[in-house]
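Lab meeting, action items carried over

1. Structure of the two-component assembly. Owner: GW. Status: complete.
Input record:
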Amino acid sequence: MSDWFRRIMASSAIVLAAGAVPCYAATYLTADQAQKICFTNATRFVAADVKLSPEQMKAIEKDSGVRVRLDTQKVWRAEAGGRFLGWFIQDEVLGKHEFIQWVLALNADGSVRQIEILDYRETYGSQIREDKWRAQFYGKEHGAKLKLDDDIKNIAGATLSSRHIADGVKRLLSFYEFALKP
Amino acid sequence: MMGIGTMLGAAALSAVADEQLFGFVRGAETLPQGQSELYQFVTLRSGKAEGAYYGLDFETELEHGFTDRFQASVSLENRYIYNRGVSGDRDALDDTDSYRFGGVSASGKYRLLSPFKDPIGLALRLEGGYVQHDEVDGLPEKEFYIAPELDFQKNFRDDTVITELWLGTEWAWGKQPAEQYPRELAFQGGLGVSYRFASNWFIGAESNIRAEYPLFDLNQFEHYVIYAGPSLHYSARRWWATLTCAHQVWGEGTGEPLDGRTYAEETNWQIRLKIGFNF
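Predicted assembly:
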């Protein structure tokens, strides 16, 4: 069997060599950096994490139509000289293989102020970081459809990531409604 | 020819598409436009009614996304077959220990519905190919085939539970002298369910069925077989791997005892390792 074994090994080595492109983790921003980008005039960020009750989780799921996986949400209040600017919410959604770490900044009235992608490690779909795509969400409020190919453009080749970010925004707008709204 | 075969490994009778959670079942996803993937598959087929039988299929496939909905691929196949004492009435084969060029194939897949934004994913797939040595005993033939199919996919729970179903036919000409009849029609399909139990990891189960009818005549039943088994899938950013271990759970063949197995063209086990690289 040695002859065929050599052939197999040779072909495998060539294929493996051809595919041995470098892998890399794509961490674009830390939460601290994103805070400064989302609220450029903020003077401080006050941690205000929220632990959801089972009832709140159910209410958010029912309202948004999106599953709530975690019962604790990392939240900061953005302030400038004692004036409330808005909310900064750190979140994660499922990518095709790994979690997409991202943040949602809300204005004081609860509308979407900004989205930043902190960490994206998927094979395809890093276009969700493009300003133009993220800008579609800005100004959206609770109750917006946030549906691909409707009020949100799909990114071809990154449909799963696009949909999960859109669902994430929808879920966090419901989270605001049920857990943050004064 | 051998140089090309050695360089590129080989492909079995299926040029397959995109990242694959299963060894044999196909879903409805396609590559994004401009992206390519290189696949290397190794399939071990082993276990006959008697004796020792090992068939190894080496597949190499290159696939490209021409649009976000359409991808096409080409593949080469080689195979190594070793058998000793497979000499019963139901699966008589000549002893052999040989490495053979299998053939070439090409496929096109068009996605009609996306599993990520439509109620169900659906793709049409057409494969065609030329087989120079058959997969059972490496016997020479000049087979041409086409295989149209439908690929369905439905995802659940934030796309962490993936179900895939494929249904198709295969029309083959020129199977003699490897087989008794020159033409053959096959109905084939499969169902798989996989769950993402950790980042990058999917575990699942799949089952596949194939029924063959010589001379394109549904009254000329030859055999049918059902395989089933677990699948394990790992994916990194630039590559992925899938291992499936499928066992013949039921089979029936003309001229074989009715004991729930068919061995004339099938085996007890089909174990497949797939590795894919994105670029």
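2. GW to write a short summary for the group page. Key points so far: Residues 2-8 of chain B form the longest helix (7 residues). The CA atoms of residues 77 and 139 of chain B lie 15 Å apart.
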